[in-house]
Structure prediction request, 197 residues.
Amino acid sequence: MAKGFHSRSPEELRVYLEGLNKKSKKRNWIQIFIFIDIVVILFAFYLVSKNVSPDFGSEFKPSNKIIINNSEIYFSKSNDSNEIEYSYFLFYKNLSIKEKTFPNPTGKLFLNLYNKDNEVCISKEVTLNSKKILGNTKEFFSFGLEEKEIPEKNDCKEFFKKADYKGMNNFFKKTKSKFYIELNMLNENQIYKMRIE
Prediction:
């Protein structure tokens, strides 16, 4: 019989097509299993990273923004924070076209840390070096809060305790922080509040 094309009987054609269909189904299942394996491995890496570094993959929520004299101000926790010191950035945006100096020499900034019972754990003045900020530009300032500054009263020291990750329960459980931190700005006898919960 010559090699190449030859006609098949209807029965041969049916058997041939069934064989192709079985191979195709088998290939699809293999691809699905590989995809599931990759997802499980990535999830395992994510869990391990969260356990080693609780802040991994999380963006710190910024405070509310305040507007004072054509200026937008807010603050946020820094990624450089560690177990003994939390670093924060204060962001200042000059919304006008004129150059401004911030902080205003007559204004003051106070940092307050509150526990779940709304009791003040610490209240301290924050001192920032003044900067000249051009119109329509943004500048940032850094300040920190150290564990040794927190008094031993009530549960205030827990603010610096690392989250305890125990298996899957805590991973999926969304818990609200027991603390909130507030930055109060005194400007022209008015107090403007920025808060992170």
Remarks:
- The mean pLDDT is 79.
- Residues 10-52 form one domain.
- The chain has two helices and ten strands.
- The chain has two domains: 10-52, 66-196.
